[in-house]
Amino acid sequence: MPSPKETLQLLTRGTAQVISEKDLLAKLEENRPLRVKLGVDPTAPDIHLGHTVPLEKLRQFQELGHEVVLIIGDFTAMIGDPSGRSATRPDISHEEVMANAQTYTDQAFKILDRSTTEVVYNGEWFSKMTFTEVMKLNSRVTLQQMLQREDFRNRIDQAEEIRLHEIQYPIMQGWDSVEVRADVEIGGTDQMFNILVGRDMQKAVGMAQQVAML
Hints:
Shape: globular
Number of strands: 6
Helix content: 40-55%
Radius of gyration: 17 Å
Strand order of the largest sheet: 1-6-5-2-3-4
Distance between the termini: 24 Å
Order of helices and strands: HEHEHEHEHHHHHEHE
Low-confidence stretches: none
Mean pLDDT: 89
Largest sheet: 6 strands, mixed
């Protein structure tokens, strides 16, 4: 097996940004399998070519002995990720989401090693939350923090609507990281804000913060 520093060089190859490499090296030096998270919302039946980039990186983590956690956003898909969007996403039913999820996982396992992949659905925790628990989750972030998102700011500047449920999305994605105890979260550069919210959520509950790998 390569040393932690050699592993760091392998894992950061091809990335746009890692927050931070120092933190990732420290985790690798703990000499334990890291839990590496990728969340996908099955809003369509097929994954596209862009999805293969993070999936290939997950496979690389697997080949180095780490644990992959693939989160199927059966709950978050019904809200829709506002990242990079200039308008609210259309509604999608839970039945549609679950049908799409089946093809998503079938296709993802053309790249991922099924035997070392943990597949979880975030409806497992969000569907059980009481309204009081949702309010407590919201209390962990500020409106100012949410409105720092570039896509939200752009929509405000252009007098475009932002529905309140869209502000929930980064909070929910961040809470996913708490639920699965993620050491690393992988996502596109458009996911930076959401992944950093996950770091904040983990810190708030006394958990070691995940590394953002973009």
